[in-house]
Amino acid sequence: MIPIKNTHEIKQMREACEVAATVLERMCERVEEGMTTYDLDQCGKNLIEEMGATSACYNYKVGSKRYPAYTCISVNEEVVHGIGRLKKVLKAGDVLSIDVSVVYNGFVGDNAKTIILEPASEKVKNLVKATEEALYEGIKQARPENRVGDISFAIQDYIESRGFSIVRDFVGHGVGRSIHEEPQIPNYGKKGTGPKLKPGMTLAIEPMVNMGTFEVKFLEDGWTAVTRDSEPSAHFEHTILVTENEPEILTFPKKLAC
Question: Model's pTM, two decimal places?
């Protein structure tokens, strides 16, 4: 069953997503060479608390494991779920993906962005650019009577036409009172397949794209996924609302954010 949000719940979702987007934007603004990913995660923790929210990923449980960080910070070949570490120092040329999920007034906002610490090669810049553009290609398909597969196909088609590969092991998802709701939204698939989209659905669409192979493996921490060939990866995500017409992107930062 895919949850359909009512008017009140949509309002709550907008507020939660605005908080998540504002935290993400401020974290990106504070990135600089020489800082550790642990310090960046602590920056995210403080920003989340300042806005009256809590981290949706801190202590998130899978089996017997609990996620130990407040945001997900993935560098270079790290695809997703990277854990902030004191020994991981950001340097020029790094590709940095930040994923922020918060709980605010009982609802979840979820978004991610990849930035580059210049200088970087044109191929790396094209990877990041294509991943962000593929996100918007997928969002365009989030219309009533379309199906999840229409989103999936649009993302895959855009990425593969540009010579990059789509990660298969992780997918987008519904989001609302929980960080992971139905439906699952793969970033690859066929048009006209999967659940039908209806107004009131709130979805986290998030292409994860690799420079080389789509295959990944996990580090010893049990959380951080890295590319199997050690080539860089990029990740973008928005939470969107399916409306009667065009999809609405909910994860935009507060206009007065400083």
Answer: 0.96
